[in-house]
Amino acid sequence: MNINERIEQAKDSFTKSDQVIYDCLMKDPWIIIRGSSTIIEFAEKCQVSKSAILRFAKKLGYSGYSEFKYDFSVSEHSNIPKEVNKNNLDYILNSYESTIRDFKKFIKEEEFARLAEEVVKADKIRICGYNRSGFSATHFKYRLLNLGMESEAVTDSLFLGSILSMPTKLKEIYLFFTVRGKASTPLNAFIEQCYRKDNMTIVITMNPNTEYRKYAHQMVLLPSLKTRGVFLDEQGIFHIFMEILLSYISEILLKK
Questions:
Q1: Residue-range domain boundaries for the chain
Q2: pLDDT surpassing 60 at residue 223
Q3: Beta carbons within 8 Å of 128's beta carbon, 6+ residues apart
Q4: Counting beta carbons within 10 angstroms of the beta carbon of residue 36, is it exposed (0 to 12), middle (13 to 18) or buried (19 or more)?
Q5: pLDDT digits (tens, 9 = 90+) for 40-72
Q6: How many angstroms separate the first and last alpha carbons of the chain?
Q7: What is the pTM of this model?
Q8: Fold topology of 94-255
Q9: Tens digits of residue pLDDT in 75-106
């Protein structure tokens, strides 16, 4: 019996939490494969408890989350859209192209201008990112250096913790790059602390429901890739955002 048959068989006995998990999977089947390596991360994406995920998996007849995730992954890979098999290159390029076109729906020109002003007037720029987002943070650091602006890429939670523990009179700005905006990402735990210390705190994410929205002086919501059958890294979307922001920063610097 495949996973779809198991789900259909168990549907009538779904609890409220089971239904939430099911709806989450149906809305984005690749949510459990793309970036959800642990049960905690998957539970956070569905906004349910870890035990609810375990109960759901066992209700479907699996011994635990790992077996459930594996079976679901096999099922989804066997349902790759025809357009992917037909022309993988076109499918990938079209996915990025449509996401880039969505930028104007998510962030307005005045938001770029306002953020550029904040970056330019800061005494210290700290760019934070963990794991793959850490590479994006480092990339932005070097792109700013091309404009003659010094900044610091922070990709380690211990380092960030020590920075925030030190008193300073500098006007600092912290830019947090976080695809999912979840607490499971170590550096995200410091977003609230940055905000409480009155540092300009910017959260750049693809998650409109991030819990860190309330701790951001400015939250930048970016469009996310919606694909099936291929794994595309959303760091590319961060890089597009950076290039647009850099153009606004460059304009301000040229006027000085």
A1: 3-79, 94-255
A2: yes
A3: 137, 153, 154, 155, 160, 174, 175, 176, 177, 187, 190
A4: buried
A5: 878 888 889 999 999 999 999 999 988 888 888
A6: 68
A7: 0.70
A8: Rossmann fold (3.40.50)
A9: 765 555 555 445 677 777 888 888 999 998 99
**Residue matched to tokens 């005045």:** 110
Strands 200-205 and 172-177: parallel
At 227 the pLDDT is 64
What are the φ and ψ backbone dihedral angles of 207, each rounded to 5 degrees?
-105, 105
- Residue 165: both structure tokens together: 């523990």
CA distance 142 to 211: 29
Query: In terms of DSSP H, where are the helices of the chain?
Result: 3-10, 16-27, 39-46, 50-59, 65-77, 82-86, 88-101, 103-106, 109-121, 132-145, 157-164, 191-196, 235-255
Q: Is the pLDDT of residue 238 over 90?
A: yes
Residues forming a β-bridge with 91 = none
What pLDDT score does 81 carry?
53
Overall fold of domain 3-79: Arc Repressor Mutant, subunit A (1.10.10)
Dihedral of CA atoms 224, 213, 31, 156 in degrees, nearest 10, equals: 90
